[in-house]
Design brief:
Layout: E1 6-10, H1 19-36, E2 44-47, E3 59-62, E4 66-68, H2 76-85, E5 95-97
Parallel strand pairs: 1-2, 4-5
Antiparallel strand pairs: 1-3, 3-4
Bound molecules: FE2/S2 (inorganic) cluster (FES).
Length: 99
């Protein structure tokens, strides 16, 4: 069993923050994507500022410990597929990943 996996989406508002860079919209898209796939709503969590907004919008996947930076709307299905749908998800401790 793959266990609990969650996607944390930074949607922090404010000038130069992820929310302003599209994070708020991404949060909505992630929630729609998990709903469409019949995954639990708790799979997507609104994240607070992780002090990486210079690379924002940022998305973090637990427990894979994978960060995605400069995430675009078209990346959402792929991130959900990769981390929430596939069994035997990868352990990527300490890695920063880009699409
Ligand atoms: S606002 Fe997203 S990392 Fe700071």
């Amino acid at each position: 069993m793959p266990g609990l996996r969650q996607i944390f989406v930074c949607a922090t508002p404010g000038e130069g923050r992820c929310g302003e860079k599209g994070g708020a919209h991404l949060l909505k898209l992630f929630r729609e994507e998990v709903s469409r796939r019949g995954l639990p709503p708790s799979s997507v969590v609104r994240n607070g500022c992780a002090r990486r907004h210079h690379e924002g919008p940022v998305v973090f996947v637990f427990p894979d410990d994978v960060w995605y930076t400069r995430v675009r709307p078209e990346d959402v299905p792929r991130i959900v597929e990769r981390h929430l749908v596939r069994d035997g998800a990868r352990e990527r401790a300490g890695r920063i990943s880009s699409l």
